[in-house]
Design brief:
heterodimer, A: 245 residues, mainly alpha, B: 327 residues, Rossmann fold, Alpha-Beta Plaits, 2 domains, four-stranded antiparallel beta sheet, 12 helices, 14 strands
Chain lengths: 245, 327
């Protein structure tokens, strides 16, 4: 089981680096992360030695960039017909789904890890709370995993990568936006409080900002992990249903 | 070694495969023949577990593809239609990946890759990306991944499609060489291929098996089987035709203008041998025959007659095969 997942994962990862795609992605990720941190997040003006201004924008960064990674996961296999080769090898469907997902997740983890100079910067400028920073990195990676799993499931439902991108980005937008004050404001006043809370509770945004405050709460971890499990389950079902269309 | 039991596949109201059953034994090369859209690929997709059948199942070396998919999948190598392979991978890396998934590790995986590269002659492109390969090489990569674990059952969907004549010949050589050890199915719409490599042929159309036999048996179903072709001088043809028509075992006589006279094609009733009767008659009447030849019947005719019964049968001179027929 683990053995096959790792073989599939390594093949996928090597696939990323066989084309300029991986390098382009990493560069765009780092540049965008930097721009958001320094310009939108007012990193210096805030005058605080933390990475709050960096992590705040991660949901929006992922909204654009993760669907760009996930869109090809299954759509490309279906389009090129390699899915028939892949799924007639002696592997379980679950191994295929997890192997592909892990490769993409590790790849995004790598891009995320490459933002370490920011951490070095705050370390140099002041005395940051490294616990909060570590928790935020973990939270960010978990959030990336949840978004990625969603994108993977969408990718399994179409042969067209552009469609996969747009649909995943839209769904991710809904998941993120649900927890923003603007959207919650729309519910307040007329909707029952339970509904407002449910909308907020379903949002990636809420759970992620809880983590970036430095508390790795079990509920937030469970939230992201259950999103991953649910979407990967959907991914497997969709692959099985749609593979031969 | 490979058994298909009542496989059917419906897509909505369309019946793509309708109750297909057959078995392939070790040492057999089964040619799976049919016009495009006949259900060949769909049958193969079901036999390999890619597509779930509406009814029926396939059993590979004793393992049911639906109940024990992993055990069954270990027993065959499969070249899907169009020979798909990851375009941005290096050939050697791709084959190594398949070897690893097939359970080989380290040196053994490397040895498998080396062996298969040699067997299907991929040496010169081993370090190239798959998307830079010509069609012929790409198909060979597809065949290589199907054979890398030396499987007892080999399922190849159009292994020679798009290859040039030399490459086709080479592919057939590879298939013939492994025949004694394996049960092999190849799908094709090339009849020459069936004659070249297959020990048995199944004709399928509209999802149903219409014929099953050796290539020779199928050819014998041709309306031109055992027909005798005679070339005679102008002038005698009409009279001879009338006399030939009187013979008991002659079904009909067709005529056409040839280069050195009139061609009479004497069709045998139910494929009975009529050459001797005609020779006797010719001796009796002292006819001068410029040439005679006995037709075996071509798979081509049979294929057309079976799969498109409403089409007109084409007599042999329609196909520009004079050289072959007037030997």
């Amino acid at each position: 089981m683990i053995h096959n997942i790792s073989i599939i994962c390594r093949r996928e990862l090597s696939g990323y680096f066989a084309t300029p795609l991986a390098y382009v992605f990493i560069v765009v990720f780092l540049v965008l992360a930097g721009v958001l941190t320094f310009f939108a997040g007012n990193f210096f003006e805030r005058g605080q030695a933390d990475l709050q201004s960096f992590f705040t924008y991660h949901p929006w960064l992922y909204l654009m960039l993760i669907p760009a990674v996930s869109m090809r996961l299954w759509a490309e296999e279906r389009k090129s017909g390699t899915i028939e080769l892949f799924l007639t090898l002696p592997i379980r469907l679950g191994e295929a789904v997890l192997g592909k997902f892990l490769a993409a997740w590790l790849f995004i983890g790598l891009a995320l890890a490459l933002t370490f100079p920011l951490w070095l910067t705050v370390l140099f400028l002041g005395d940051p709370d490294n616990g909060v920073i570590l928790a935020s990195y973990i939270g960010s990676w978990l959030m990336a995993g949840a978004i990625l799993a969603l994108g993977a499931a969408v990718s399994a439902a179409t042969k067209n990568q552009i469609v996969a991108f747009i649909v995943s980005a839209s769904l991710v937008f809904v998941l993120i936006a649900a927890g923003t004050p603007t959207v919650l404001g729309l519910f307040e006043g007329w909707a029952p409080e339970g509904l407002t809370r449910a909308v907020a509770g379903a949002s990636i945004f809420r759970h992620f900002s809880a983590i970036t405050r430095g508390v790795l709460d079990m509920r937030d971890l469970v939230y992201f992990l259950s999103l991953m499990v649910a979407f990967l389950g959907a991914n497997a079902v969709l692959v099985d249903l749609m593979k031969a269309e | 070694m490979l058994e298909l039991h009542n496989l059917s596949k419906k897509f909505g109201s369309l019946v793509a495969v309708d109750d297909v059953s057959f078995t392939v034994a070790k040492g057999e090369v089964l040619g799976f023949l049919g016009p495009n859209g006949a259900g060949k690929s769909t049958t193969m997709k079901m036999a390999t577990g890619f597509l779930a059948p509406t009814t029926g199942t396939a059993v590979v070396c004793g393992h049911d593809i639906l109940r024990q998919p992993l055990a069954a999948k270990r027993q065959f190598g499969y070249l899907p239609e169009g020979a798909p392979a990851y375009p941005d991978m290096i050939v050697a890396a791709f084959l190594r990946f398949v070897a690893h998934i097939r359970g080989f590790r380290g040196d053994e995986a490397a040895a498998r890759v080396d062996h298969i590269v040699e067997l299907v002659h991929l040496g010169e492109v081993c370090d190239q990306r798959i998307d830079t390969l010509s069609k012929g090489f790409r198909r060979r990569v597809g065949v290589a991944q199907a054979l890398i674990h030396d499987p007892p059952v080999v399922i190849l969907d159009e292994p020679t499609d798009g290859l040039d004549p030399n490459q086709k010949h080479e592919m057939r050589r590879i298939i013939s060489a492994m025949r004694p050890e394996k049960a092999i199915i190849i799908s094709t719409h090339l009849l020459e291929e069936v004659e070249a490599v297959c020990s048995r042929a199944i004709v399928i159309a509209h999802g149903r098996i219409l014929a099953d036999g050796t290539p020779a048996e199928l050819a014998a179903r041709s309306r031109y089987h055992n027909a005798v072709r005679i070339t005679v001088a102008h002038g005698n043809a009409a009279k001879m035709r009338a006399e030939l028509d009187q013979l008991d075992d002659v079904a009909a006589v067709e005529t056409a203008e040839g280069e050195d006279g009139v061609i009479l094609l004497v069709l045998a009733r139910d494929g009975r041998p009529i050459a001797d009767d005609i020779a006797d008659l010719a001796r009796l009447r002292r006819w001068k025959l410029a040439s005679t030849a006995v037709e075996r019947g071509r798979l081509d005719d049979v294929f057309r007659a079976i799969t498109a019964p409403e089409s007109e049968p084409r007599p042999p001179w329609d196909l520009g095969e004079f050289a072959k027929l007037t030997n």
